[in-house]
Write a structure and sequence with these properties.
about 300 residues, about 5% helix, mainly beta, 15-stranded antiparallel sheet, 2 helices, five-stranded antiparallel sheet
Length: about 300
């Protein structure tokens, strides 16, 4: 993969400890960056004001292919460590739900010739999307401590590719949907950067600043009055997307990415009339807490990674 861009990840021992990346994903786009905060001013004699030193805000945004082993690190950075159980020789099931605690990661992006590394990063939102003709795509954004240039790493990738669209099953209240051309789930877990006095202008820590929430987007073709009825009547539905992969060794387990939302209601089901192409509907749904998913969403991975802690 020499000469190609990558996204590298590593869990941090301590906030801002900036370990070198050890897990890699094929990257579509990535932008680690620093932004100076607005300068404040203090009184300076009778002649005017003197600018104070500015602080630094940093963040990282990226889009990658969702390979099922490294995907667990992205989910850990958003939701916290999973509950893990072994399901066969060399195979583990990891269940991710929003949990207390906050782990931080290093994220390094490279275009193949130069690299930029953001440390002290926790994700504020993560979107997992699947569309016709594509792999599972994952995009994220979160605040970081700083972003600095580094030497380009030698990337090595997990053996299993991201799930493919042809193998995916989308279910609404247990029934398979056959009209979905694109779907995405966004999980938001707000993060607040904290800058302490005497800490060089960089962020000194991160804290969670709100409960995690999940929203679902669906594009279906052709349009159907059934979706309008579900929205108008406020029906409570369930939503699940199953994305299987290849078998793991000789045992009965296989790679799997599953997203479950046991309680959802449609927030929008717009009808569109046009003279071009096949009419489609872009639906929006909101997930609610349920016994089967504390904050309305649960992500389950089956892969060959034994632990994310």
């Amino acid at each position: 993969m020499s000469g190609l861009g990558y996204l590298g990840l590593a869990p941090e021992v301590d906030y801002g400890s900036a370990e070198a990346p050890i897990h890699f994903l094929p990257v579509a786009t990535a932008t680690p960056q620093e932004t100076p905060s607005a300068a404040e001013v203090a009184a300076y004699g009778a002649a005017g004001h003197e600018p104070l030193d500015r602080g630094i805000n940093a963040e990282a945004r990226f889009s990658v292919e969702g390979q099922p082993d490294v995907l667990g690190h992205l989910l850990t950075a958003l939701l916290g460590p999973p509950v893990t159980e072994q399901v066969g020789a060399g195979a583990w099931r990891h269940t991710f739900e929003p949990r207390a605690g906050l782990l931080t990661y290093v994220v390094e992006a490279s275009d193949g010739t130069q690299a930029q590394r953001a440390d002290g990063l926790a994700f504020a939102s993560l979107t997992l999307g699947m569309r016709t003709g594509a792999y599972l795509a994952v995009s994220a954004i979160g605040p970081a401590r700083r972003a600095v240039p580094v030497a380009t790493a030698t990337a090595s990738y997990a053996a299993e590719d991201a799930p493919r669209w042809k193998n995916v099953t989308v279910l609404l209240s247990g029934a398979v949907l056959t009209d979905v051309v694109e779907t995405a789930i966004t999980i938001a877990a707000p993060v607040q950067a904290v800058a302490a006095v005497g800490r060089t202008g960089y962020t000194s820590g991160l804290v969670r600043s709100g409960v995690a929430r999940a929203g679902i987007g669906l594009t279906v073709t052709p349009q159907s009055s059934a979706w309008l009825a579900r929205a108008r009547e406020g029906l409570e539905l369930s939503y699940e997307i199953r994305m299987p992969g290849s078998a793991i060794g000789a045992n009965v387990a296989s790679y799997q990415v599953t997203i479950q939302c046991p309680r959802v209601r449609l927030a929008a089901a717009p009808f569109a009339a046009n003279m071009r192409g096949v009419p489609s509907m872009t639906l929006q749904a909101v997930a609610y807490p349920a016994d089967g998913a504390v904050r309305g969403v649960k992500v389950v991975l089956v892969n060959v990674t034994a632990t994310y802690t």
